[in-house]
Automatic annotation (TrEMBL):
Superkingdom of origin: Bacteria
Similarity annotation: Belongs to the HypD family.
Organism per entry: Rhodobacter ferrooxidans
Molecular function in Gene Ontology: 4 iron, 4 sulfur cluster binding; carbon monoxide binding; iron ion binding
Keywords: Iron, Metal-binding
This protein's record includes keyword Transmembrane helix: no
Name this protein carries in UniProt: Hydrogenase maturation factor
Transmembrane domains' residue ranges: none
Gene3D superfamilies associated with the record: 6.10.20.100, HypD, alpha/beta domain 1
Pfam families per the UniProt record, alphabetical: HypD
GO process terms (BP): protein maturation
Amino acid sequence: MKYASEFRDPLAAKVLLAEIARVADAIGATKAKPVHIMEICGGHTHAIFRYGLDKLVHEGVEFIHGPGCPVCVLPMSRVDECVQLAELPGVIFTTFGDAMRVPGRRKSLLQAKAAGCDIRMVYSPLDALELARRNPGREVVFFGLGFETTTPSTALSIQQAAREGLANFSVFCNHITVPEPIRALLGDPDMLLDGFIGPGHVSMVIGTHPYDFIAQEFGKPIVVAGFEPLDLLQSVLMVLRQIAEGRAEVENQYARVVPEHGNPVSLAAIADVYERRPSFEWRGLGEIDASGLKIRAKYAAWDAEEKFAIGYGAGPRVVDEPEGCACGAVMTGRIKPTACPQFGKGCTPEMPLGALMVSSEGACAAYWQYGGARAAAE
């Protein structure tokens, strides 16, 4: 594929790996005292394991898996509220496929669908809009989920519904932001992180400047990266070079896609439709100030929380994780997925306890798909 195969060249990978090893040795990185680099995005986690980068890089480089999987960080209380909405008479509940199997306290959306709820998987909020047009006698609710990557499409759909006066369409908004949880992690004195690989898709929308605080306030390097193996290897090298040179900057490895100041059309739609919540609950991280988005009052007619008096509008509900489930510790990089006592035992893709095992960006799903099943058996 044009512009993909070039970023999978094994000879170029060998050159990058050799330079990573040279710089890692120069800064004294060893297996006993590694450089901890957090890849924020779950898509990066899967790419690292898919291409075996964790095994190819110098032993003094350790990848830490961050909270950049929007399905994974969704608390169980919000899954419960999705099921509650889907169970309302006359509702067609629409969602991305990743969220279907995430367990709630009572059941998952897939189990609710099996029990008779009209729950449909869609590929875009525009699909949900079309369902609303075709079913004027039904309430169509779209599960708005994701970081800044998917936020603009939901915002544009709400704007379109408003223009059409499509009163039977609404969004259950669970959009969240990347910088705030990173600030929370950096504020944890027990979290040992030396640098970051930044999320390319998110940065395509918001640009690179929202990460300035990582370098300026906390003195940590961050490199916004693409998703091919050479992208990730070059980004690791860029982080290591910053450390070797005593620098802490925001660098953009993914400049072929990511503009410095983001996408102005997307940012304008986000600003028009959303405002910050005072706080939002994250699985594994708890309540984080200003980390979630809610629909502005001007679009309240298309806000499922307002329309159905559910969710944060009715008061937040905190639901504890299943006993023995270590999603929070995995998601914040404190342990690897295989260190969870339920990995491969009480938690498998067929019978998941936590979202990290079923999301296409979940760290546990990556470990399982690319060798974790064998590790669990051993």
